[in-house]
Design goal:
The chain has 21 helices and eight strands. It has 474 residues and is of the alpha+beta class. The chain has a four-stranded mixed beta sheet with strand order 6-5-7-8. The longest helix has 24 residues, at 120-143.
């Protein structure tokens, strides 16, 4: 049995009651985190542009955008949900590779689950499987030297979303194989004899060429579309994960494909998801914590810092070294900005990555004092900061990994606090609290759509349009 068929049979035959309780709990944590991120980003103007995009759907169903209440076809609902939940760069990632996990899987699943009136337990089950496949694909790519490769991660997102949606639709192994094939079909032209450089050429390694949120959203939509197509037709099945010109043929030569299947169903890579405590690229988090700690311990005045050295793994420097960002998207991927604004403000929240702090003269001056130095003795998730002060002192601090990393996971309480902070601009406190309670108990919901409908601010919810919505009084 080839790799694709093995994965498809595993997903088709999986039962939720055979999945360990901690894994199921992790899926609920991921849902709580995603929903908060979606509420925080659902007013982003980029979502309005989706309304003007050409419609392509294989299903007449409609779904609700969390936080807004507006209805749209499934494909548009997936795009909007994904863009909203990724708008603040706050979504969960696979810690070893940095690949997005929750955004593509939940954004693809939730509109479909609402339209099908699926139970919370069924959605959680589908999430576990889709997220697990993303993590395993990303780990295999990681071992084959594709760490941080954006287009490779988009491929993982498409396949993971297709897997999750296929499970929710109840596809058998043959149709799941087809769904995975459709989701990955644009990766199938890689010759097995190509070198790693050739695969880099296929993916590209220059980052996203357009807004990364849109690309990730498109990957989620592609996953949903692949599953819907497979549900309709099993002819002309595509097997791109293995075979003479398969995506994993090269990885098999590099002994990476074993990571995709080793311990499947017993060892859960889902446990390696990192939840972000800071709204920026995960490569900045260790530098932020090192800056916070050195500031707390030594309390240097900003004007007394003459030079800053930030030491990080070379792979981190290659991804996040924009010295003078001009917008939030650049700032969220700038080590210099993250360190500078954290040292001055003693915080690294949404305000610190907003336009006012990006343009602030003091922050710009602090950014100019920062020197980045590669150090391969540090782990990719670590950082070391060194401050030279006006009085001649040198103070420093090192971090092996930041909070939110699986080695230092955020607690349920911290995830709840993150949710509250992201929902605060949209929902009244009592509605946010009741929504949060629903999210933590998602597995018990007979209809997961109740969670989506409960996320809409009371004044925006029309019971006539959404019959059965659980109106939550203020």
């Amino acid at each position: 049995m080839n790799i694709t068929s093995t994965v498809a049979h595993f997903v088709a035959e999986s039962r939720l009651d055979r999945i360990a309780e901690p894994v199921r709990d992790e899926a609920v944590r991921a849902l709580v985190d995603w929903l908060g991120c979606c509420l925080g980003g659902c007013l982003d103007p980029a979502l309005d542009a989706v309304n003007d995009a050409p419609k392509f759907t294989l299903d007449d169903s409609e779904a609700t955008l969390p936080g807004r209440g507006s209805r749209s076809d499934l494909a548009s609902a997936v795009l909007r949900s994904a863009i909203a939940s990724e708008a603040l760069d706050f979504g969960a990632t696979h810690a070893p590779s940095g690949a997005a996990v929750s955004v593509p899987v939940v954004a693809a699943l939730l509109p479909l689950a609402e339209a099908r009136a699926a139970s919370g337990a069924d959605m959680v089950h589908a999430y576990v499987l889709g997220a697990e496949i993303i993590c395993r694909l990303a780990q295999a790519l990681n071992a084959a030297s594709f760490t941080g490769n954006s287009r490779a991660h988009l491929a993982c997102a498409r396949i993971g979303a297709a897997t999750a949606c296929g499970k929710l639709l109840g596809l058998d192994a043959a149709r799941l194989t087809h769904a995975i094939g459709i989701a990955a079909c644009d990766m199938g032209a890689i010759d097995a004899a190509d070198s790693a450089a050739g695969l880099f050429a296929q993916f590209g390694d220059d980052g996203y060429r357009v807004d990364d949120r849109v690309q990730l959203a498109a990957a989620a939509r592609s996953g949903l579309t692949a599953a819907l197509l497979a549900q309709r037709d099993t002819a002309n099945r595509i097997l791109p994960l293995a075979g003479g010109q398969g995506f994993f043929a090269l990885l098999e030569q590099l002994a990476s494909s074993e990571m995709l299947l080793h311990g499947l169903g017993e060892e859960w890579h889902l446990a390696r998801i990192a939840y972000k405590p800071y709204p920026c690229d995960s490569t900045l988090h260790a530098a932020i914590e090192a800056s916070l700690n050195v500031r707390t311990r030594h309390r240097p005045l900003a004007r007394h810092i003459t030079q800053i050295e930030l030491h990080a793994h070379p792979s981190v420097l290659a991804r996040a070294r924009t010295q003078a960002p001009t917008n939030a998207a650049q700032a969220r991927r700038s080590l210099q900005h993250a360190v500078a604004v954290t040292l001055i403000d003693g915080a690294a929240g949404l305000e610190q990555f907003g336009g006012r702090r990006i343009a602030a003269t003091r922050v710009a001056e602090m950014r100019s004092r920062i020197e980045l130095r590669g150090d391969d003795r540090l782990p990719p998730e670590g950082a070391r900061i060194l401050l030279r002060l006006l009085d001649g002192r040198v103070v420093e601090h090192s971090v092996r990994c930041a909070r939110g990393h699986p080695a230092r996971p955020l607690s349920d309480g911290e995830l709840s606090d993150k949710f509250r902070s992201l929902a605060a601009e949209l929902l009244a406190t009592d509605q946010a609290e009741r929504l949060l309670a629903l999210a933590w108990n998602a597995r018990a919901l007979a209809d997961i759509g109740a969670l989506v409908r409960a996320s809409v601010p009371d004044e925006a919810l029309d019971p006539a349009e959404l019959p059965g919505s659980p109106l939550i009084p203020r």
